[in-house]
Write a structure and sequence with these properties.
The complex is a heterodimer of chains A (130) and B (127).
Chain A (H helix, E strand, L loop, with lengths): L13 E3 L2 H11 L4 H4 L1 H5 L10 H16 L1 H6 E7 L8 E12 L2 E10 L4 E10 L1
Antiparallel strand pairs in A: 1-3, 2-5, 3-4, 4-5
Chain B lengths: L10 E9 L1 H10 L15 H14 L7 E9 L7 E15 L2 E11 L5 E11 L1
Classes of the chains: A alpha+beta (130), B alpha+beta (127).
C-alpha cells in the first residue's frame, strides 16, 4: 500500500525507556526537572517514581514519521499530541501511526504511543503536506 | 522567578539559540535514533522546541510536580542542523481549573529574516 493512502499503517517502533537515557535526554535538552532524574524527589510526588519527559517520548513519534516520510515530514508537517499516562523507567513503549485522511495532497495520521501493558501514553494526530 | 506567577502575554525568552550538532548528537543518542540525524540536513522536529523548553525551565523555576499535558508543534520550514535560530516564548494562558493551575506556553522559532519556522504550544499542569 502507498504510504500516502488512507489505511496505511506506519512501521511501529518499540523501545525500552531507561533511567540512563532519560538522564541523557535531560542534560542534552536542559530540562533537568528532578521528577525525571531524581528518584528521592520523585518518591514525594504523585508518581512515586521518576518518569520520562513527555517531549522525549513524543520525539519517538517524530522519529517514526521521519523514518516513513523523510524530509517531507520535516518540511511540511505538524503534530498535536496529548500526554495521557506517564512512562516509568524500564517500561517498553511502541509507536503507532495510521493514515486516516488523504486528500488534496495532505494526509492526516492518527498517532499514539502505547505501553507494553496496553496503556495509551500519548495520543494525537499528525498532518503532512506532500 | 516562578513560572506560575507570570501573567498572560509575559515574554519568557526572546533570544538567539544555537542548535549545535554536539547537542543534537547527545539528544539523538538519548532517543535511540542517532542514525536518523545522518539521513537529513535538518533537525528532528521536537529538538528545537525541547532545547527552548530547557532554556525556559532553567530561567524560571518550575513548581514541584509539574506535568506536561499536551504539545502541539507545526512547522512551516525545516531547521538545518547546526544553525542559529531566534526563539520567542510567552505565557499564552495562566488559568486555574478545578483548583489546578494550567499554564499554556507559546513558542515561535524564527530565522534571521524573521520568517517563522516552527510554532508550538504546550500546556503544563502545575499542582
Amino acid at each position: 500500500m502507498n504510504k500516502y493512502q488512507k489505511g496505511y499503517k506506519t512501521k511501529s517502533q518499540a523501545m525500552t525507556i531507561t533511567q540512563s537515557k532519560v538522564i541523557s535526554y535531560a542534560y542534552s535538552s536542559g530540562d533537568i526537572n528532578p521528577i525525571h532524574i531524581n528518584s528521592e524527589f520523585a518518591k514525594k510526588t504523585m508518581f512515586k517514581k521518576t518518569i520520562a519527559h513527555g517531549m522525549m517520548i513524543g520525539a519517538f513519534l517524530g522519529e517514526m514519521l521521519f523514518s516513513e516520510y523523510g524530509d517531507v515530514w520535516l518540511t511540511s508537517g505538524s503534530i498535536d499530541i496529548k500526554f495521557k499516562s506517564p512512562i516509568y523507567m524500564d517500561e517498553t513503549i511502541e509507536t503507532y501511526g495510521e493514515v486516516v485522511i488523504s486528500e488534496n495532497n495532505i494526509i492526516k495520521l492518527n498517532v499514539s504511543i502505547t505501553k507494553n501493558d496496553g496503556t495509551e501514553a500519548i495520543k494525537g494526530y499528525a498532518t503532512i503536506k506532500f | 522567578m516562578k513560572l506560575s506567577e507570570l501573567d498572560t502575554n509575559m515574554p519568557l525568552i526572546d533570544t538567539n539559540i544555537m542548535l549545535s550538532r554536539d547537542i543534537l548528537a547527545k539528544y539523538m543518542g538519548s532517543i535511540n535514533s542517532s542514525s536518523n540525524s545522518d539521513k537529513t540536513i535538518y533537525n528532528p522536529i521536537f529538538f528545537p522546541t525541547a532545547i527552548i523548553f530547557g532554556e525556559i525551565f532553567n530561567k524560571y523555576s518550575l513548581p514541584d510536580g509539574t506535568i506536561h499535558l499536551s504539545q502541539k508543534i507545526s512547522f512551516s520550514k525545516p531547521i538545518k542542523q547546526n544553525s542559529m535560530v531566534h526563539a520567542f516564548a510567552k505565557i499564552n494562558k495562566n488559568t486555574i481549573k478545578a483548583g489546578k493551575r494550567i499554564i499554556s506556553i507559546k513558542i515561535e522559532i524564527t530565522n534571521n529574516k524573521k520568517t517563522i519556522l516552527h510554532e508550538s504550544m504546550c500546556n503544563l499542569l502545575i499542582s
